[in-house]
Amino acid sequence: MIDIERPGTRLRRLRRSESIRRLVNETDLHPSKLIAPVFVRHGEKVVEPIESMPGVNRYSVDEVGSYVGRLWDAGIRGVLLFGIPGSKDEMGSQAYSSDGVVPRATAEIKANIPSVLVVADVCLCEYTSHGHCGVVKEGQVDNDATVPLLAKAAVEYARAGAEVVAPSAMMDHQVAAIRTALDDSGHRETVVMGYSAKFASSFYGPFREAAGSTPAFGDRRAYQMSGANSREALREIQGDVDEGADIIMVKPALPYLDIITKARSRFNLPIAAYSVSGEYSMIKAASINGWLNERSAAMEALTSIRRAGADIIITYFAEQAANWLKEAS
User: Fold this and answer.
1) Higher-confidence residue: 5 or 60?
2) How far is CA 123 from each of CA 40, 134, 146, 205, rounded to the nearest angstrom?
3) Which pLDDT band, with edges at 50, 70 and 90, does 3 fall under?
4) Element (H or E) spanning 40, and its range?
5) N or C, where is the chain less crowded by C-beta within 10 Å?
6) CATH of the domain at 84
7) Is 251 designated active site?
8) Structural domain boundaries, residue 278
9) Percent of the chain scoring above 90 in pLDDT
10) In a domain, 2, yes or no
11) Among 33, 88, 110, 198, which one carries the catalytic annotation?
12) Of these residues, 33, 88, 110, 251, which one is catalytic?
């Protein structure tokens, strides 16, 4: 029986007030650690709600600067751009066009908010008529035919002013090809954030509606990773490190917190974690139905990602979380 008259270890002492709890918090969130994904589409004067992602919109190039300005005012210093073109083809040519939506949006954003960090996603899935992340030959995505196109796209985004390019296609040696292309084109300072461990996940559904990138046939399991494999994830990350990635990423975040932690213990590079559309939408849907408190659930989820070891969190809750953090400070 515990002798409660004698002093001893009482962990509850450090939980008794909000001031004490804040003092001893082991994991902190800050808006500077958050990146907001932004969908940019063709057209003019378009702010288009995404049905499966309440509160998230597609913006035309002329409207995106205003939205990014709002993010800046909230304390968000970085955005991740996804382009939705006016036309698609089998080669995804709008992905690497100098007149594509992402280069134009980058220029527009930089003209309005020069200090904002622009990260450009590098993939073909939003741009191909078949919805796959690369060139399709004989019913299969051709890795080696795709990689040069990804490198070409990365150079166009860097020319437009993106400080970071983020290859997400999960093609072997995409990081090496992009690093070489950037260096050869005079963009040695451009950062490469590799989607290093990107899993074939059920949580991408709302994104595919938002970006119009659902595959017309088959799935992406031949190039995205199996959720059963953690050792393979570390091999994928090591490959990106060896090829010159400056930042590594785990995607999705919440179902793969263990991968984030394992990566943190093994690699000294900054680690990003992408809290994907399905993670956002399930919290939104539950809160809309009154099943949980949106703010509490979202902040708990984001804190868990930081606690697992992520330095950077890409999240659709970025603006809301930044405002909540302001209110709490």
Assistant:
1) 60
2) 14, 8, 9, 17
3) low
4) strand 34-41
5) N
6) 3.20.20.70
7) yes
8) 27-328
9) 88
10) no
11) 198
12) 251
